[in-house]
Structures are given as C-alpha cells and as structure tokens.
Amino acid sequence: MAGLELLSDQGYRLDGRKATELRKVQARMGVFAQADGSAYLEQGNTKALAVVYGPHEIRGARSRALHDRAIINCQYSMATFSTAERKRRPHGDRKSTEMSLHLKQTFEAAVLTQLYPRSQIDIYVKILQSDGGNYSVCVNAATLAVIDAGIPMRDYVCACTVGFVDETSLADLCYAEESGGVSSLALALLPRGGQIALVQMDARLHQDHLDTLIEAAMTACKGVSKVLDQVVRQHLQEGSTLRE
Amino acid sequence: MLKSKTFVKKTRAGGVMKIVREHYLRDDIWCGSEACRECKQESTVLQADACIESNLCPYPHYVVPDTNVVLHQIDVLEDPVIRNVIILQTVLQEVRHRSAPVYKRLKDMIQAKEKLVYTFTNEHHRETYIEREQGESANDRNDRAIRVAVKWYSQHLKADGLKVVLLTDDQGNKEKAEENSLVVYKFDEYVKNLTANPELVDRLALSKDDKAEIISSKVLFPEHLPLSKIQSGIKSGTFLQGTFKASRDNYLEATVFVQGDGAESTEVLIQGLQNLNRAVHQDVVAVQLLPRNQWVSPSSVVLQDDGAAKDDDMDEDEEEKALRISAAEAAGKPTGKIVGIIKRNWRPFCGMLNVSQIKESTRHLFTPADRRIPRIRIETRQASTLVGQRIMVAIDGWPKNSRYPNGHFVRSLGSAGEKGTEEAVLLLEHDVPHQAFSQNVLSFLPKMPWGITPEDMVKRQDLRHLTVCSVDPPGCTDIDDALHCRELENGNLEVGVHIADVSHFIRPGNALDKEAANRGTTVYLCGKRIDMVPELLSSNLCSLRSNVERLAFSCIWEMNHNAEILKTQFTKSVINSKASLTYAEAQMRIDDTNKKDDITESLRGLNKLAKILKRKRIENGALTLSSLEVRFHIDSETHDPIDLQTKELMETNSMVEEFMLLANISVAQKIYDEFPDCALLRKHPAPPPSNYDILLKAAKSMNVEIHTDSAKALADSLDVAKVDGFSYFNTLLRILATRCMMQAVYFCSGMDSDFHHYGLASPIYTHFTSPIRRYADIIVHRLLAVAIGADITYPDLMDKHKQSALCNNLNYRHKMSQYAQRASVAFHTQLFFKSRGILNEEGFVLFVRKNAIIVLIPKFGLEGTVFFDSKDKAGPSLVFDEEGPTLKVEQTTFHIFDKVKVTISLDDSNIQHQKIRMALTEPVIPGVSVAAPDVEPQAKKPKVDH
Amino acid sequence: MATVKVSEAEKVYILHGIRDDLRVDGRSCEDYRHMEVETDVVSNTDGSARVSLGHTAVLVGIKAEIGKPRPLVPDEGYLEFFVDCSANATPEFEGRGGEELGIELSNTLYRVFNNKNSIDLKGLCISAGEHCWVLYVDVLLLQCDGNLYDAISVAIKAALFNTKIPRVHMSSDDEGGKEVELSDDPFDCVRLSVENVPCIVTLCKVGHRHVVDATLQEKACSVASLIIAVTHRGTVTCVKKVGGGSLDPESIFEMTEAGKRVGKALHAPLMKLLQQEESLGKKREKVGFLG
Fold first, then answer.
1. Is the CB of residue A82 less than 8 Å away from at least one CB of chain C?
2. Could you tell me which residue ranges the Exoribonuclease phosphorolytic domain spans (chain A) (predicted)?
C-alpha cells in the first residue's frame, strides 16, 4: 500500500487545507474559577487546557527564588486518553519533561518577570486530545491563560508547527502530516517585534530551505496571533458587559 | 470554509486504535470547465466545445470514469481520442491504493496538456462530500460519492449546454445512476460507439461477463488467499514474501527471491504449474514452503512452452513428470508453492500473435518475447493484420480456471524481423526510455550560439594553453575525456585528465536533470545510440572536440617518473583540445619515432606512466578478465552487418583506461573525505566462494590449480594457468572467471560499510570520467564541485536516502542497458548468419548441462547451446555427472574445454525467437551429430587433436 | 485537594446552619450543587464525558483495547481505572504530588465498578482465555471543589453509556490459528448496558447530621465521611468510610439510608439527560470547554 500523499497535485493537503492554511482555532478564557488564570484552546483536533497560578510566593525551597525576577514553573502533561494509542503516564517521561522546559523558556522570554521579584508563576498545560502541533497549541493556550491571570507580557506568544514537503511549506501540521515524513519545525513568535521566543527542529532539512520554512512559520504565527487577539477582546467585552 | 470530521479506525499490532482525522470542506473548488460562468477559476482545463465523434453521445460532454474503469481500461483512456475527462479525487485515491503503475499512468495522463484531464477534488467540496452511512460498505460509499459528484456536475453545467457522462462497468452502480437520471454508459458500450477510432475496441480489457464465456468451468489452479490471510501468514512465519522470478529456460520452474533481515536472503524454488499458481515474472508473491521431503533441486532441463494452442487442457503432466524425475536425483533446495499474490507487476509485454486455427475466432494466444512471461489470451478482430507483427499486450487477469492469463491488445510496433521493429522491442523489453526528449526537457538547454562568458570564468582555471588531446574509438562523437602530460621545471611530470563539465549545463532538479537521472545511462546498441542527454550537449557542447573551447572538470596530478602521485588538484577549467585521435592514430604517433611534436611527446609521457600504473595495479591484485566483445562492420547503406570481428585492444586503449581509473580513484577518495555520508561510490563485492565452484572444477579437469582466496591469488594463478598445446585455454579460463564475478554497483557511502572494489583491487572507487553518458558521474561531479567550492549544494545531494534510491535506479538502468546491448548484438549476429547460410566452425565447450552443452565459437565470440534431446523423438542416452561436470552422450563424454565442431545456422522457424542453432558435427555420435555442410572445404579435413 | 483554612467562628456558623438544614450556599442537607454533564467530548476515545459539580470538574475518557482475560475469570473482560490528579487542579499535585490520592481513588473505583453486577463483563469477552476487551477508564481531575467521588462516578456512568466498542469476530484459518478481525463498518459497534452501574454518594458527617455534596469548607468541619455506591433500584453495592475521624454504627445506618434515597434520585435525571443527548445524535452541538 502506498503511503500518504501529503500534498496533492491540486494543492490540497490530507484534510483538505491548502499549504498555508491554519486549522480552525477556537478558544475560551476563564474556564476555571479556582485558578488565577485559565484558558482552553483547540487547534483542529488538538485540544489543550492551560491554567496559571500566581504570581505567588515561592513554594518549596526558598533558595530557588531570584532576587530580580519571578521564576516561571511549567508542567506539561497529556491526558492518558489523548493519543490514538493510550499513554501509560500523563507526565514524567522524557518527552513531556523536555516539553515543560521548552514552555518555560518560551514564557521566560515573554512574561515581564522582573515585575515580580522573589515570586513564582505556575503554568500548567494539559493536552486533552492530541492531533499534532502539541507544543504550539500549548503555547497558544498558555498565552491566553497568562493574560487571563492578568500577568503582563511583552506581547502574545504565538506558536505554530510548520513542515516542508515537496518544496512547499505546510502551515500548522496535523498528526498525520507530522508522522508522515515531513521535516517539521516548531516556532514561537512575539509577533509585534517579530522576535522568536523559541525555535526547534529535529528533522533533517537542507539549510537552503530553512529561511523559507521560518518565514512560513512566522506568517502562520501571525495568523494565530490574530485569532488570539480576537479571543481576548471578546472575552474582555463579555466580562465588561457582565459587570455593568 | 466549513469543517467536518471523519472517523477512521485502524488496527495495528493486533490492537485496535481509533484514529480521528479532520476533514475540511471548501467552497473554493472550481469545476475546471471553460464554459462555466459560475466558478471563479483562473484557468480551465475542459473545453466548452467538448465533442467526440460518437453515435452514442453526439452532444458536447465530459466523461467521468469510475475506479474500475480507470484500473482496467487505462490503455483505452490513454488514447488521444479520449479527451475532456474528469477524474474525481475519490477515483484517484482508490487507484492509488490499488495499483501503483496505473496510478502513475493516470497521473501522467492528467499532466499531459493535450489530454484535457481535470482532477476534481470532490471529497473536499462542500456540495459533493458525503459521509458513509450506516450499513454502507466503503466501496458503496465511494460509488455513491462518484454519483453525487456526477450529479453535481450535470446540474452545474446544465445551463452551459454540457452533459456529463458517467462510465462504469458495475451494473449496480449503473442502475443507481440511472435512477438519479444521470447519463451513464458501460465503458465498452461508450467506446464501441466512438466513430473516431474504431481500433480502440481491441484495446478494451475483458469485462467480467466476457471472461465467464471463455473459460471452462474446470478449476485448474488453487485459489489465491486473501491479502489479510497472507499478511497474518507472513507475520506468523507460515508464508514467505518475495519476488517471483520465472526461469528463462523452463516454463515450469521459478524461484522466489525472499529478502531476509539485513543482507540475508533466500531463494525458494517453485516447480510445476499448480505450485506456480498463476504468478507472473516480477510479481510480489507469498510462498509456503513444502515439507522437507518434497524439496527438489532446480532441474537443468530446458523446457519451453511451445506446444500449439493447447489451451485449457492440462496435458502438461508428462513434461512435469520429466521434470520431477530429473529433479529428484539431487538433494533438494527449499521448495514451495505460491499461495497468493501480494502485488502484480504486470506491464505491457512485447510479443507476437499465434493466430487461432479457427478462422472466425476473435480469441488468440499471444506469445511474449520474454520467455519468462506466460502466453496471454487476447481478443482482437484484426488478427489477420497483426500476424507477423510485433505487438504489445497487457494482462487483465488470470482466473483460476484458465490455463493462460487474459489480456488485451495495446499497440503494434511493426513487422517482425525488421530492424526498426526489433530495436523498438529490444528497448521496450529492457525498459530503456527512448522517446524523443520532450520540449520541457529541451527548454533547459543552453541557447545557441553558445560561448564562454566572463561569469563562466570566475571559478575556472584557464588551461587553454595546454596541449590537451583526446583518444577515443573511431567515430566517437561524445568525447567526454581528454588528457595532457608535460614536464615541469622541477623534472616531475604534470598529468591532467579533463572531463566534460556536464554538471555546468545540467542544473539540479530541472526537467533536463530529472530526465537524465531517469535514463541513467546512454545505451549503445549496434549502430544506434540512445542518449542520456540531448544531442546538443552529448555531441557538441560537452564533447571535448579538438580546436574548440570547452568547459571541463580537470584532475591534475604532479607525478615523478615512477608514476607516484606527489600532488593532486581538482579544478573546473576551460580547455582547447589540440587533437581528437583514435586509438590507432595515437598508437601510430607513439610508435613513429620521427614524430617529435608536443602532442606525440605528451602521448609518450602518458603511455610510459600508464604502463607503470598498470603494472602496479596488477601487482596489487587487480584482475584482467576476458570477455569477447564483438564488433560489426555495418554496411553504410543498408545498415546491415557485413562482417563481424572481435574487438582488438591496443596499448593506447589501456593508456586511456589507466588514467581514467586513476582519476576515478582520486575523486572517490576526495568526495568520500568531504562527504562521508553521501558520497556516491561504486563497489565490486568479492564473490562468495561457491561462485568459483565451476571455475575450480573446470580447471581441475585440466590439472590446473586456481586459487581464489583473494583477488591477487586469483590473478596470479590465472596468469600461470597454461596447458601445452592449448593456447586458447587461458582465455577460456578467464571467460569462466568473469562469469563467477559479482555485478559492480553504485551505492551511497552513508548506507554501506563495504567499499572495496574487488576487480580493480582498490579500496574505494567511483565514476567520474563519463558524465555525458552516465548519470552517476554527474552526481560525482556535483559532489566534487561542492568539495572544492566551485558550486553550491542542494538538499537531495546531501540526503543519503534519496541518493540511495537514485543508486538503485542507476544500477537497474545500467544492468538493463547491458542486457539491451547484448540483445542487440545477438540480433545483429542473427542478421549476419542469415546472410551466411550454414557454417561449420570450431568451438570449445564452455558449460555442461543435463541435456545440452554450451559452446563458444572464438572466431565470432558467439555462444550457443547444442541440445541432445528433442521433444518429437526419443533422445540418446544422457548421463550427467555433476562432479565433473561431464555429460555422457551415448558413448562420448563431454567435458568443459573440449574442442568440438558445430554447424551454425539461423533457425527462423519461430519468427519471434529467431535463434542461432548449433548442431554437433565433431565428435561424431551416431544419431546425434550431423554431417558437416559442404560450403566450407576446410571443414572436411580430418583433424586430430588432443 | 486544595486546602481551605476555616476559622473557628466560621466552623460554628457552618455547623449551626447544617443543624437547621440550611447550608452556607442555601442548599438543604440532601441537595446537590448545580451539575453539568456532557458526553462524547473527546473524539479519539471510545467513550467520554465531562462533569462539573460546583467548581469541581472532571473529564473521563474510555479506551477499549484488546487484551488477555484474567486467568481466574477466562470468560470475562475487565475494566482498568486510572485517576490523573493533574497539577491543573491545584499546584500541590505537581510532579508526583497527586499520586497518592490518585491511587486511592482508582482503587475505590475499581472495587465499585469492576464487577459483573454493575457491568456485563462476560459481554466483553471475545474468545475465552485468549482475547477480551479491556476498558481503560481514565479520569482526569481538572478542578477540585469537594465531593470528587460523586462527580467521578457520574462521569464514569455517562462515559460508559457513551462508549462504543467496535464489533469484532474471530476468524480462524486452516492451521487453527485464530485472529481477531475488525468489522469493516465504522457504525457497527457494541454498546454497554449501564442500567446497573451504580453512582457514588458521599455523605459527610458534620456535627450530628450528615450532608451530601459537601463543599471544601463543609468538609473541613467534618470528622469523617461515608461513600455509598447505589444503583438505580436503590441497591447498595459498596460502602466505605473515608477520612480520619470515627463514626458510630447508628449514624452509619442512618447515612446509608440517606445515601440510598439520594442515590436513587440521582439516577433518574442522569439517565434522562443521557438518553436525550443520544437521541440528538450528530445534530447535537458540542460545547466542551468552549461554552
């Protein structure tokens, strides 16, 4: 049997999108009452819940405190039923530890941590359903949760996974594409300044293509940022009408 | 943009997994018709005035074939008459899953502009996407999707006066379509009513109803297992998966080549029609091993299925029995039976028609030229015109109650025996791409008049002042190498090898490059050359002709007088060759002591160094093996061969060769050092010891010992192998040794660890020196150019998997081109003997088989088989001894190297397989040998030797 | 579980209120808080449900996998439970912080649900001794605001109701080897009967009375609680005391009676809601976490 045809001659991808099209992004802020900030975000069939606690006092060893800024504490986990094949543990494996670290790095670049010296901000992200681009969806959800918590950031952090196949960049990969032999690259962007908060790529790609791929990723991130901006504005509007 | 989801379930590793995929529906997918005013499309494919001469559909219309029509009738669909076709995405996907070759052809068809084929992405169109309903099978759903799309099209184009015709051979689908008031026809119904091209009818594949008519109810073959069972069987180890290779010599025997883990692989022997169970050469099959006590060994019997149309009677029993008996003697090899077909690898086959004895019959048997392919039953109304023609036929299917597969006529190649036709057959049968280069490919050629520009010179050395010359066979127009040699001030010698800079003209990834990569090599036939790159490059811009400025890639060494390399330099350059010489001309200049000009001095220097290089190489254990190469003197008017001679080698031949080898080795080392993961190299594996068995046995029979522990031992023992009074012995031995060797192959350094080139006794080797005629050299040029900073790299060059895939293609093309070349020589040999009548010649026994000996005629470099048994009459008593190996015919025993005399004649009783027939005249065996013909008086002289 | 600190004065206020059958949020002792149930929220599971009870939120996903039957009961399938106390619910669960609670919860759930009286385990068997369905019931705690057991049990019952197991049959080949084959039709699946699946009612002893669906504040005032699994007929299938304090036999009897009453009343509206959702089929608009 032949493998999957990731991009048809007519220019359509497996799920019917064109190369530069994002999946449908839907999000809601303030999902939970107990946390300081929370958000739920779907990007196609990848669904994530992000919760923010803090800024609060340092939990555990006080020596971890930084005198000039807040520490950002991230935990990434996946629901055991989120993947096609059931996972045995929600977190604690290498992959999710690495992912936690990436999230931490991404948000250290975005959150104005110097405003909260000697304190801690917890960002917990849970993947409820996984269909590719887990890192990006987590970043996007967490951005909304941090905003919901009222923690100042330089800009939205928007992330997107892009891939390269048949000389074409594909935006926002789904799982079938990620596993179908595409060289994928994940990029987190602070769109206003065009600053890159994180870029990661495991696959082999020729150097000549890197620029086009990063370019495509940045365009995709900007697309995501528009959607996030809309969500935030709508959320604020709803909030203000309720208060009136 | 709307969105919905599909739910797919998959199993993997025994478990069950639920897989969910998104499925977006769009409203920006257009219909592709020129007549449409609704769609906002930028370009259209389908014509507004889509007319075809038809009795059935005289109105303008588009056709929509369903999946089975595409799968089975692609031969008809490809005809230029059929245009304005809509291929639905549903159909395209189903075809992709079910048949890779048809999918490829379908895609080619879609891309051909003049065919006007439009692909409609119906599965993502908001109005044509449908979800599978409860209780509906996947096939029914797809049929419904096709009907929905056709319905949409008919309504969409109604206002524009166009109709859409659904073509399906499925009765149920047709009825449902009629209920939906769609225009629907069976495919044969549609084609038969096309007045434009009545011959198309012959190309129709048989539909199911027709098949039922032909075949008897008797079940002749065991049922094939379904794929699911095969897969579970392979997983559990009950079955083995492999490629089916039919035997050329015996139609009742085949082997299945099973690729094991890593390098391990086994061959499973299959014998008998029942066990072969309808597998065709090159199919991927599942085999089940028979119990060990039923294992047999490959028979040495030569059996051809050449009974007249035996049709469905299985009177093969006797032949099979013969097979069994002969096979049972020796210890068995793993033997099995085919239980199922995993993938058919059918392609159109060349061959000829055996016209049915019944005059009115439209069903005939077709005999393919390739003996490994079974005969095929086809239906045609033009049998009388096709008789004596070479035709192409495609297989449609092989039901279990039919002795032969069913097929249909594809096209005619011309009259059999005509040179043009036979060449076409030869190229087709060896899968040699030989069409004219397309416009797209030619568009990437440099524009004429061409000249060297200053930009070209940026990264090049100007070597135009050097006395460079080329030495090639006479009549060579694609000169890809030139040489120079001069003395330096420090007393050392500077030697340069200059190779045409083809990679300057062929840039990676464009159509020209892709075409060349696919062709892989230039194919040389007798009197004809099928170029890898267009002629403008091969015979002009890249040909290093004398007195013109040409771009080159140079490899320059500084050597001392002992031919030791002191310095190596690679550079792109510009040269101006001072002379294009033939081997003979160069030889004459060297030998002529009066000549003192630069060119001659340069040649002498080269020749001197080459001799030292050659000596060193041989000391290192490089092999010099023989194979007799035959040249034809071709009549310039008729292009028929008038004389035939074996190639003669001169010193200058080996002079050029030595430097090419040296350049190749130097370049191989350089690119490997620079790119350890993706250097394209060439290796020649050492043969496994068992390969030498026949050589050792043969030598031993003459009391000569051959050592095969290493290449050097072999070379040394071959050098001393001599038998008094038998001067030709050493050559024969070397011919045998050649047959023991493995095939040299291209590979990617990142995918292999064994680089050794056995024949050349070099630890590393590649091909650099013939980029005009070998694609591997172009890749090597590109790698070397990157390594010296003269060119930039590109992704595929650094991707070892892609490079490995390329190597596979190059190896395949290379092998096929050799086969084609041999076949061409054989064909010309036949033409030659046709005009000569019966000859009587002296020859040597090269191999001994159970029922035949293979004889080599040194005079013609010709090999032929002398059969001792024949089907029609009782044969002589034959005793075969594998140890010798010897064959005792009546009272005479044949050994390898025995000198015999045979008559040579052309047997054209079977026009398709014209062959050289050899019959024994000496030694005389009553009832077996024939009388020598009178034509040549010297043959009558009694001759007594050894 | 998120700790709440309750002052002595607050405690007295809560205790007095409960004595008068009027709780802080206005409920009477046997009232539940507002409960939301939605099924089929995670499309790549075989069955799923989301339940929120007050601020407590849980998500249950069920995946059916083919496994080997337990040797003691070769003709039955079985259920596996896993409770993921994620850090989302409270930072205390970060790392391995939630593990202890998770194990306690999953063990209790296993006892309550994995028996042939609540679920037709024989129906999960594919071929005796060789293949059976294993239902992995994974519970994800998203927010904790007291009364986890009740919320989880309702979510599990809803998810089981929603579960669709693909239909399989055993095919055997000539050599006697058997192979599980999946039905080709994605609509061809087996549903579970959840009629006898119990719900858990937690009764919290506060002062001399007991309350259902205690909030975290109420819990802080209680000495001990009793969890009771009740079927729709009012049959008690499991009773377990949880918490640090002790209970006298009489109050256990009283609490059990109350639990039966409350539990019975809980089943009817739940089943009605589930059936209503089911009847809407594909037309139902999924809300999930976006609503």
1. yes
2. 21-152, 155-219
Tell me which chain B residues have a C-beta less than 8 angstroms from the C-beta of C64.
16
Interface test with B, best of A17, A82, A129, A168 (most B CBs within 10 A): A17
d(CA C10, CA C14): 6
Shortest distance between the Cα of A176 and any Cα of chain B, in A, equals 8
Contacts of A77 in chain C (CB under 8 A): 84, 86-87
Q: What CATH code is carried by the domain that includes residue A95?
A: 3.30.230.70
Fill in the DSSP letter of residue B447. P
- In order of their start, the domains of chain B are 44-122+129-196 (3.40.50.1010), 205-414 (2.40.50.690), 447-621+628-666 (no CATH), 837-940 (2.40.50.140)
CB B747 within 8 A of CB B780: no
| Chain C interface includes A76 (CB < 8 A) | no
Residue A212 lies in a domain: yes
Q: Which residue of C has its CA nearest to A79?
A: C140
Q: For residues A94 and A78, is the Cβ–Cβ distance under 8 A?
A: no
Shortest distance between the Cα of C114 and any Cα of chain A, in A, equals: 19
Interface pTM, i.e. ipTM: 0.89
Distance from CA of C45 to the nearest CA of B (A): 7
Q: How distant, in Å, are the alpha carbons of A6, A49, B165, B711 from that of C213?
A: 52, 26, 67, 88
Q: Quote the distance between the C-alpha of residue B877 and its chain's center.
A: 40
Q: Where are the alpha helices (DSSP H) in chain C?
A: 8-19, 99-113, 148-162, 216-221, 249-280
Quick check: is A12 in a domain?
Answer: no
Cβ–Cβ of C184/B233 closer than 8 Å? no
Encode B82-111: b = buried (16+ Cβ within 10 Å), e = exposed: bbbbbbbbbbbbbbbeebeebbebbbebbe
Which subunits have 3 or more CB–CB pairs within 8 Å of chain B? A, C
| Within a domain: A11 | no
SS (H, E, C) B3-57: EEEEEEEEEECCEEEEEEEEEEEECCCCCCECCCCCCCCCCCCECCCCCCCECCC
Q: Which two tokens stand for residue B599?
A: 């060119």
**pLDDT band with cut points at 50, 70 and 90 for residue B218:** low
Any B CB within 8 A of C288 CB: no
The C-alpha atoms of residue B231 and residue C243 are separated, in whole angstroms, by: 56
Domain that holds residue A185: 25-243
Whether the predicted model's global pTM rises above the 0.80 cut:
no
3-state SS, A71-107, equals EEEEEEEECCCCCCCCCCCCCCCHHHHHHHHHHHHHH
CA distances for B589 relative to B158, B367, B520, B594, B606, angstroms? 82, 55, 36, 9, 13
| DSSP secondary structure letter of residue B694 | H
- What is the per-residue pLDDT across A163-188, written as a single tens digit (0 to 9) for each? 988 778 999 999 988 887 788 899 99
In terms of CATH, what superfamily is C8-280? Answer: GHMP Kinase, N-terminal domain (3.30.230.70)
Report the phi/psi class of residue B621: left, alpha or beta, with left for phi > 0 and alpha for psi in -120 to 50: left
Provide, as residue numbers in chain A, all residues whose Cβ is less than 8 Å from the Cβ of C143.
Answer: 32-35
DSSP-assigned states of every residue in B201-256: GGGPPPPHHHHHHHS-S---SPPPPPHHHHHHHHHHTSEEEEEEEE-SSBTTEEEE
Is A124 in Cβ contact with C87 (below 8 Å)? yes
B5, B7, B22: best to mutate for the A interface, most A CBs within 10 A: B22
- Cβ-nearest to C65 among A40, A86, A124: A86
Q: Are B887 and B900 in contact (CB under 8 A)?
A: no
Least confident of A183-192, B225-234, B326-335, B795-804: B326-335
Closest CA to B920 of B938, B932, B906, B934: B932
A15 inside domain: no
Query: pLDDT confidence of B217, banded at 50, 70, 90?
Result: low
**Number of domains observed in the structure of chain A:** 1
